[in-house]
Amino acid sequence: MPLSNWLCIHPSSATTDISDTVSLDNRGLAYGDGFFTTMGVIDGQILWLAHHQQRLVSHAEALQLELDNHSIMAIIRTHAEQLQQGMLKLMVTRAVQDVRGYGYVPTASGSACEIWLKSSAMTVTTTEQLRLPDGCLIPMQPISSAICLSSQLTCLPPLLAGLKSLNRLDNVLASGELQSIKAQVSEDNIKPRISEGLLRDMSGRWVEGTMSNVFYQLSDSPLSTLSSEKTASEKLSTLPLYEDNANYLTTGQWYTPSMAQSGVAGVMRQVLIDALSTSKHPVIIRSLKDEDLPRLSQLFFCNALRGVMPMSSLTLLSGEVVGF
């Protein structure tokens, strides 16, 4: 398969380039009727394969899509071996329906799906690695900073909340806001570097990043914030540098917001929850509210490709900066 091309791997009779076969009636394109998962590949092996497989099963069940999980995983493994290093993106959409409009027939044809796969050669960062309590290693990105965004996530019904569905317009707009902020920061040569934005949902609770889940710790008393009027160099000099990651995950109590009404229950989020489940401080599912932000003592974002992204500060909507 040519790299960076989409390939239809189901139905098997249509294993050709997407540009030759995709229809404007495709329900993923028309209605966002489907889901996707993005997998990192190192040395021909898919990272966190069992968690991605569980996503296929749970999402297909939630959206009432029929797929052969075992054959799909076999195909994915083959492409991972060919790719060796990079990213695989799998997209599942409901097959075209005879019913007019949104609906689909409650039969086998209504649950039929099209499955697309894209291979992209890229470097999956492994220079710095963080050891989980079970001995597994995950990538750890350089320290950067985050900012609270004004964009908001949609609150969803329980059946759809947490799914990595193709309906991602709220993330699209939020990512656009973040890119605009990053461009301005770069133009003004402001430090530290902003790499992620924190998003709240329509209920006002802070849920996740634009492309990641969030974990946090709280101090016993409110932290002092850095004045937004300080210079960039003064802000940078005030921020503690994170040097030793040996006990990063196992020291202190970590929390992560619930995905019960908004956000995506990410693969790396579940990997970390599982890894810490038997530790002294298992991860606690807890809402993150406005009044918690000044009390943050640690914050990191995570996803299946980039691993853990530790933050040294969070800029609030008011312009104040909470340093960790």
Automatic annotation (TrEMBL):
> What processes in GO biological process is this protein linked to?
4-aminobenzoate biosynthetic process
Residues in a coiled coil are: none
User: Which UniProt keywords are given for this protein, alphabetically ordered?
Assistant: Lyase
Q: Name one GO molecular function term.
A: 4-amino-4-deoxychorismate lyase activity
Which Gene Ontology cellular-component terms appear in the entry? cytosol
Q: What InterPro entries does this protein map onto?
A: Aminotrans_IV, Aminotransferase-like, BCAT-like_C, BCAT-like_N, Class-IV_PLP-Dep_Aminotrnsfr
Q: Would you identify the family this protein belongs to, as annotated?
A: Belongs to the class-IV pyridoxal-phosphate-dependent aminotransferase family.
Protein's name in the database? Aminodeoxychorismate lyase apoprotein
Which species is the source of this protein?
Answer: Psychrobacter immobilis
